[in-house]
């Protein structure tokens, strides 16, 4: 008995859907960004408008994009409370940001290790772009929170594990607002800016260098540092 299964050709609408979803998950299309009109998108991707419409319909169903009457289609801004399992978990009065960081430790250290084994050229490019964007934002006095999230999502995407990617997207949708507040608090001490950027660079270099153990340890050190900061500051 053969273990092989027939290879099915992926539908064009599936390919369009996956491409748009990837741009959103990687953070290249950010919450609030407007998608180009159907006609332009169809021309750009060399597909029919019906194909584009079907792909966007699936993104709407997943709450990744939303239609605004008379304005167009936009990347949805995540509602941290609406339909997010992490919101329900955090309604527990005993749950804290420290607990969330422990969850991140479990998810992201493994992700960094897997990324070091599986990342392809597009993953590395996405990581570098996010890191440089984060570096540019904080150097200019900003927080770089969107770029920070994109960096960690690039690592999740590099695991090539669709379940892990979806969990991380859900996780960061919930944390997006919290990350902004956390970074603002963390960066009150300018020294922390260089330290956090250094952490991200070490993680990225370990992944690029195909060093799973060092990628795991670098991510672990990064999250431990943030955990210690909030523990000492009781935030």
The total of beta strands comes to 2
Give the overall average pLDDT: 84
The structural domain count equals 2
Please name the CATH topology of the largest domain. Four Helix Bundle (Hemerythrin (Met), subunit A)
User: What structural class results from the helix and strand content?
Assistant: mainly alpha
Order of helices and strands: HHHEEHHHHHHH
Strand content bin: under 5%
Indicate the CATH architecture of the largest domain: Up-down Bundle
Cα-atom radius of gyration: 19 Å
User: How are strands sequenced across the largest beta sheet?
Assistant: 1-2
- pLDDT below 50 for ≥5 consecutive residues: which ranges? none
Largest sheet: 2 strands, antiparallel
- Percent of residues in helices comes to 55-70%
CATH superfamily of the largest domain: GntR ligand-binding domain-like
CATH class of the largest domain: Mainly Alpha
Outline: globular
- Helical element count? 10
């Amino acid at each position: 008995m053969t273990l092989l299964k027939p290879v099915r050709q992926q539908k064009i609408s599936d390919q369009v859907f996956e491409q748009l979803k990837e741009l959103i998950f990687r953070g290249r299309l950010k919450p609030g960004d407007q998608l180009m009109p159907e006609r332009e998108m169809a021309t750009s991707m060399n597909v029919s408008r019906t194909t584009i419409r079907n792909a966007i319909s699936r993104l709407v169903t997943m709450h990744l994009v939303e239609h605004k009457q008379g304005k167009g289609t936009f990347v949805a801004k995540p509602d941290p409370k609406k339909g997010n399992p992490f919101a329900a978990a955090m309604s527990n009065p005993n749950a804290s940001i420290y607990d969330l960081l422990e969850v991140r430790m479990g998810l992201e250290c493994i992700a960094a290790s897997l990324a070091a084994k599986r990342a392809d050229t597009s993953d590395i490019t996405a990581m570098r772009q996010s890191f440089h964007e984060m570096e540019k934002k904080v150097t200019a006095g900003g927080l770089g929170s969107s770029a920070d999230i994109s960096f960690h999502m690039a690592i999740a995407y590099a695991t090539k594990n669709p379940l892990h990617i979806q969990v991380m997207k859900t996780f960061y949708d919930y944390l997006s607002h919290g990350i902004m507040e956390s970074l603002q608090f963390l960066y009150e001490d300018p020294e922390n800016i260089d330290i956090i950027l250094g952490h991200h660079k070490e993680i990225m270099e370990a992944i690029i260098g195909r060093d799973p153990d060092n990628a795991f340890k670098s991510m672990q050190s990064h999250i431990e540092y943030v955990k210690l900061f909030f523990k000492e500051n009781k935030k």
